[in-house]
Structure formats: C-alpha cells, structure tokens
Amino acid sequence: MAKPSDCCSTHLIDGDGTMDVAGLEKFMKEVKLSECGLSYAIVSIMGPQSSGLRPPKVFGWQDALDDTAFEKQSALFALAVSDIVLINMWCHDIGREHAANKPLLKTVFQVMTRLFSPRKTTMIFVIRDKTRTPLENLEPVLREDIQKIWDSVPKPEAHKETPLSAFFNIDVVALSSYEEKEEQFKEQVANLRKRFQQSIAPGGLAGDRQGVVPASGFCFSAEQIWKVIKENRDLDLPAHKVMVATVRCEEIAAEKHAAFARNKDWYELEDAVQSQLVPDFGNKTSLLLDTCFTGYDDEAAFFEEGVRNSKRKQLKEKLLQLVEPAYQLTLQHMRSDTLEKFIKSFEDALNKGQGFQVASHDCTISAMKSFDEKCKGAIIKQADWDSSKIRAKVSQDIDSHISDVRNAKLSDLTALYESNLKMALHGPVEALLEGAAADTWPAIRKLLRNETKTALSKFSKALAGFEMDENAKENLLSRLEGYAIDVVEGKAKEEAGKVLHSMKERFTTIFNHDNDLMPRTWTGKEDIRAINKTARTSALKLLSVLAAIRLEDYADKIETILIQALADPTNVPDKNSNSQNPLATSKWEKIPDTKTLITPVQCKSLWNQFQKETEYAVTQAITAQKANRQNSSWLPPPWAILALFVLGFDEFMTLLRNPLYVLFIFVGFLLMKALWVQLGIATEFQNG
C-alpha cells in the first residue's frame, strides 16, 4: 500500500457542480501525469452510501448524493473519463428486487447509452461483506441481475439490440467483512490492488480499451467533458477525442513554432544569411526542423492520428513559411556568387586567348555545375521547393552577360575593321577626287571593291570565333560593306562642299605653272588664251567629277554637258532659240537624286563665281606679258638715236674738251649700275 506521503489528492467537482481545473492541473503536475503518454489509467468508484474503499490508482470517486440529475451527470462523467469502474455493492443485495445498487446500475446503463460511440469500460463489481455463500454461486445471480437491469433500461434506437458486452467488460470480486475478518479483507484488497498494476497491458483489466486521451490532454479533456455534461448535451466521445487532440496538438505546435523562432542557432543562421552565402544552409536548417518536428511527434504521439498529422502539417507549413525567406535569400546569394565567378573565369579565358565560343561554353557549364552543387547544400529536406526558377534566372544572367560581352567584342572588332577600311579608302579616294580624271570614278569603284572584299574576308574569319547565327553574321558583314560605301560617299560629299576652292586651286596650279610645275614667267611668248582654256577645262572636269556619286556605272554625260555649256560659249543657245539650256534643271540625267552632289543649276552658279574670282589672275598675266615685251629691248629706236646725236653734238664736244666731266659721268654710271643690279629692276620689268 502506498504511503500517505506518496499520495496526492484533489477534490475534482464540488457540490454545486464546479470543476476545480486548477486543482486537477496541480495534481497532474505533482504526479507528473503529463509525461505518461498513454501509460496511465483512470479508475472510478461508485456505490451505495458508505460502501466505498480507498481507490487503488490515480484518484477516487464516490457518489453519495440523492440528487438524481447530479447523480446521472456524475455517473456519465465517470464513465466518459474512466478506464475501470469499481461498483461496490452489499452481498445481501444480490438477488433482491429493491437492492440498494439497482438505481445506481440503472443510472450507469442509462447514461452509457447516451454516448454515441462509447469507449468500452471495465466494470468490476466488488461484493462487500461476503457471506459463506461461495462466489461461484453469487456471481451467476449477480450477472443475471445486471442483465435484467440492462434489458429494462430504455435505450436509443441505435442501441436497442446492442448487447451489454459491447459496452462493458464485467468482472466480479468479493471482499470479506472488514469488521469480522480484517486480515482476510486486507489480503483480498491487496490481491485486487495487484490487478491494477498492469491494468493497461494486454490481458489486463483495461487491456482492450480504445480512444484513450494522451495524459497531457487529460485535464482539458475532462474539463470539456464536464462542460458538455453540465449543459445536458449528449456526449460524442469520438468527436470529443478529436476536439481534445485538436486543442492539444495546436498548443504543442504553437510551442514548437515559438521555440524554433527563438532558437539561438536559427537566429544566428538567419542573421548570417542576410549578408552572405552560408555554406551547408540546407542541412543546418533541416537539422533544426528535424529537432522541432521530433519534439512535436513525441508530445503529440498519442493523440488522434488524423488530427495529429493535420496539425503537424500545419506546423510544417508555418515553419517553412518562417524559413523560406532565408532560403530564397540563400538562392539569391548563390545566384550573385555564381554570376560573379562566371564573369571572372570568362574574362580570364578570353584574356588567355581562348576562343569566344569555346570560352563561353566551357565557363557556362562550369558555372551551372557549381550552382547545382550549391543548390544541393541549400536544399531543405522537409520542403519540396523547386529551385528551377532561380536556376533559369542564373542561366539568363549568364546568357545576358555573354551577350553583352559578345556585343562589346563585336563592337570593338567592327570598329577596328571600320577604322582599317577608312584608312584604306580615305586617302586614296581623296587623291583620286582631287585628280579629277576621266577614270576617277572607275578607279574609285575598283578601289572600293578590292578593299571591301579584303576586309570582309578577314572580318568573316574573325566572326567565326563567336557563337552567332548566320543572319546576325550577315548583318555585320553587310554593315561593314555599307560603312565602306559611306566612307567613299562621305569623302565625295566633303570634296563637293569645297569644290569652288578646289577649282580655283586647280586653275591656279595649271595657269601659273608649266608642265614641270615650275612657276611661269610671262616672257611674251606664252599663249595665255590657250593656257587659260586648259586651266578652266581642268577645273570644269573637277566640277563634273564632284557633281555626282558614281559607285555604279550610270553612263552619264555630265562632263560633256558642262564643257559644252560652260567651256565653249559658242554652244550656249540663243535666247530666241527654242533649244533648252541643259543646265536649267535640278537633276542630272540617269543620276538618282540621292547620288546628286551638285545640281546643274548649282554648277552654273559655281562656274560663274569661279570665272569672276579667276579673272584677275588672267588680267595680271596679260599685263605682265606686255611689260616683259617692252623691257626685252634696251636700245631706243633708230630715229631717237639720230635725233640724240644731232641735238647733243655740242654737249658731246664739250665733254671731249673737258676730261673731268667724263670722269664724273663714268662714276655716276657705276653707281647707277650697282643700284640696278642690287634692286633687280630688270627682273621686275620682266614680270610686268
């Protein structure tokens, strides 16, 4: 027998029907009932007034109230929470019609039928103050009485044909009179107590019990059961079991969720993820979640399975919601880290001379493989999150960077070949345009064709190292070809813009220099008219060359038209003539407008201005030629010499008579000769 110091008791329900929940919680805490899981049993004791004995387990129950309603409520409560019910009865009441225990049994059976799906309860009838009649004779009579009471009790329609054995396991024990046979009584009580020690084991008193509420939820379960009974509602034990499991599992889940959120390891892990990639994040988080779920499973192990699993699922969802931001941040770190390493490795490969296509392919495979390995370390085994979207973004990042680098490389490569083409075309085209010969544009076309062909061939080979489709390649080649044309056309437009200046320079060069490019000296023998015509015709050819862009052979007659209209005045139509002036138009025949640089009307205007600005040079030449002719003869005419001799005879004779005068005249002659030579007066006369 347990010592009084080892026992703990509480008054569960007082006289007015109020349950002492705080007292029950204190009782459970002191006996550590919450730690028992399903390894506990609830025993109730009922019986007539003063028939009770100390309960052998957990807590005792004795109903001695006369109030019928409270009696039924108490009986229903006892049946609802108990695994074993002890019913005390007097031996002399067995077989009696008006036995003291019959109202109690009727109450028990009536309330039992109110349970929609009752738990099977072990009911032990304890025969008190057994007489000499053997138990073997008493038990059949008692069982018969019990069956009669069961048959007589009104039952719901669902249980009218339900046998007693569906609700109760009936057992009968007998105790001798404590007053007459104390030692035998104590021995019998001790034997009865032993039967409770393994009561929930298979074959024990409550070995086939069902729907047991886990010990941690017993207080809440008992409170809710009593609440339903007090409100006089039928009690559905399976529903109640689900309700208890729901509440307790929610409480356990909330505790585990809060504990996880406060966990120091999780806090440090979550904090670290904010700023950097945490190695093995997935395994660390999975371990913390495992610990949390294990704790939940241990505490909720004995509650209704469906509810337990449902609340575990909800706990899992909440924990994963808590963890997911850190997981997504980890993936973002991995994305950034992968792209950063790819950029470096790709740049290094290109700097080492590796081909663009090979470098991009190898570095991409390496980067994605590294990302996949990192993803394995970030996987949280409790979650079925798919990292394919972030992987696709990483792939897009890499492809975008490759595209940017490719475009930059292609831009640099294109700029290089454009620069080379410009150098190859710019100078020669300028020289050809300045030369303005009959074969200027055929020569330019040949130059353009050869240089473009060479550049396109080299450029095409250079593009072979880039991973690009044929259309893109053709576009780049076409752009380079177009650029070459633009260089030539641009130079032609530039020269056309300064055509008047170029014409004057050409005229001046031809007019003022001989065939050996030596400055002309107008000695009087030159044919200024012919030289002027040649110089103007050359300037007019320059104008005809720059009048239009001829990268295609248009078979135009611009030069002929300009020479006939401007260089040969005799061909200018008379005002009264019906023939049209070929320059009185804004278009050249056979030349597209887009290729026209100087229109016919503009050519006439430029020619008129050119003539005005070069006319002075021709006039100067004519003047110089006349002066040179005059200075070519140093002696005066014969008649002047004769007149000088006749008129100066006396003076001549005077000089002969006075030699001193001759000396003075000779000295003066020497001085004048020195000044003549020093000042180059003869040369100035020759130049007019």
Automatic annotation (TrEMBL):
<dbReference type="GO" id="GO:0016320">
    <property type="term" value="P:endoplasmic reticulum membrane fusion"/>
</dbReference>
<keyword id="KW-1133">Transmembrane helix</keyword>
<feature type="transmembrane region" description="Helical">
    <location>
        <begin position="660"/>
        <end position="681"/>
    </location>
</feature>
<dbReference type="InterPro" id="IPR030386">
    <property type="entry name" value="G_GB1_RHD3_dom"/>
</dbReference>
<keyword id="KW-0547">Nucleotide-binding</keyword>
<dbReference type="InterPro" id="IPR008803">
    <property type="entry name" value="RHD3/Sey1"/>
</dbReference>
<dbReference type="GO" id="GO:0005525">
    <property type="term" value="F:GTP binding"/>
</dbReference>
<keyword id="KW-0342">GTP-binding</keyword>
<dbReference type="GO" id="GO:0005783">
    <property type="term" value="C:endoplasmic reticulum"/>
</dbReference>
<keyword id="KW-0472">Membrane</keyword>
<dbReference type="Pfam" id="PF05879">
    <property type="entry name" value="RHD3_GTPase"/>
</dbReference>
<keyword id="KW-0378">Hydrolase</keyword>
<feature type="domain" description="GB1/RHD3-type G">
    <location>
        <begin position="1"/>
        <end position="209"/>
    </location>
</feature>
<comment type="similarity">
    <text>Belongs to the TRAFAC class dynamin-like GTPase superfamily. GB1/RHD3 GTPase family.</text>
</comment>
<protein>
    <recommendedName>
        <fullName>GB1/RHD3-type G domain-containing protein</fullName>
    </recommendedName>
</protein>
<dbReference type="Pfam" id="PF20428">
    <property type="entry name" value="Sey1_3HB"/>
</dbReference>
<keyword id="KW-0812">Transmembrane</keyword>
<dbReference type="GO" id="GO:0003924">
    <property type="term" value="F:GTPase activity"/>
</dbReference>
<dbReference type="InterPro" id="IPR046758">
    <property type="entry name" value="Sey1/RHD3-like_3HB"/>
</dbReference>
<keyword id="KW-0256">Endoplasmic reticulum</keyword>
